[in-house]
Design brief:
With about 280 residues, the chain is an alpha/beta fold. The chain has one domain (about 10-275): 3-Layer(aba) Sandwich (Rossmann fold). About 50% of the residues lie in helices and about 15% in strands. The strands form 3 sheets. It has a 7-stranded parallel sheet with strand order 3-2-1-4-6-7-10, with helices on both faces. It has a two-stranded antiparallel sheet with strand order 5-11. Helix 1 (about 20-30) links the parallel strand 1 (about 10-15) and strand 2. Helix 4 (about 105-135) packs parallel to helix 5.
């Protein structure tokens, strides 16, 4: 497939105030894409927009809570009004928290699905009619390596990431004949706020999270891979071949995965209210 020029093709990025979202916005702007920066932390968005403009790029910051469908439609409308069209949407906003299933509440589960999954669908639904009309465009969904396997105390987060990955796969087959590409992004641990907060459970290091230190990557590495995917679309974006191999191995031999988890001896959170985590994108409200 020939390389697609991204010059002048606008993208909306949710959860753009930090981590992978912010890094992707910078990378896309460098590739010539006008960027709509969407998140709730508007002070960070303004600073990021100034940084992009100072480097010669185009950026529009807009307050957006992805759990609100109207806010997502306003984001897309603002993109079209400012830049004339929309080419891509990167559904990236999300959060997570540390809590075993038996201590988590229905409200906690509904809340994380509301943001991570329904927030994704809200952003996509707002952009999709325009992409279908143009018979062109690219939808990106930020899932995780944890879409392929789960770790203790993060079942809720892993469940949302798996749902996003399966949604992307299904949509990819549905929309390819209509001219729209769909890709899922599967980061490993990134050097962002999420990883810093997730180092401790109940004041003690989380052994499973500690095991991922060797896979930590800067968000800029993920951002560059996303830009390459926009230029040459592919089904999934992975930035760690070893982690992808581990995910495949776990699928083939779940007994081995259980043995590895037992070796890690994960610590169960002691408090009823474990800390919320910024999953690289946006913190919970």
């Amino acid at each position: 497939m020939p390389k697609t020029s991204l010059q002048g093709k606008p993208i909306c990025i949710t959860g753009a105030s930090s981590g992978i979202g912010a890094a992707t916005a910078i990378a896309c702007a460098r590739a010539g894409m006008p960027v709509v920066l969407a998140a709730r932390r508007t002070d960070r968005l303004e600073a990021l927009a100034d940084q992009i403009r100072a480097s010669g790029g185009q950026a529009l910051p807009i307050a957006c809570d992805v759990t609100d469908p109207d806010a997502c439609r306003a984001m897309v409308d603002a993109c079209i009004a400012q830049f004339g069209s929309i080419f891509s949407v990167f559904a990236n906003a999300g959060y997570g928290f540390i809590q075993p299933f038996h201590k988590s509440t229905d409200d906690e589960w509904r809340g994380i699905f509301e943001t991570n999954l329904w927030g994704t669908t809200n952003a996509i639904r707002a952009a999709l009619p325009h992409l279908l009309h143009a018979r062109s465009g690219h939808i990106l969904i930020c899932s995780s390596c944890l879409a392929r396997f789960a770790i203790p105390n993060y079942g809720h987060y892993c469940a949302t990431k798996a749902a996003q990955a399966q949604l992307a796969t299904s949509m990819r087959h549905e929309l390819r004949p209509l001219g729209v590409h769909v890709s899922s992004v599967h980061p490993v641990g990134t050097a962002t706020e999420f990883f810093e907060v997730s180092q401790a459970i109940g004041g003690r290091p989380d052994p499973v999270i500690q095991q991922t230190r060797r896979f930590i990557q800067p968000p800029e590495r993920v951002a560059k891979a996303i830009v390459r995917c926009l230029q040459r679309p592919r089904p999934e974006v992975w930035t760690s071949l070893p982690m992808r191999a581990i995910a495949a191995g776990i699928t083939l031999c779940p007994t081995w995965a259980d043995w590895a988890m037992r070796r890690a001896r994960p610590v169960e959170p002691e408090s009823e209210g474990a800390p919320g985590l910024d999953v690289d994108r946006e913190p919970p409200a």
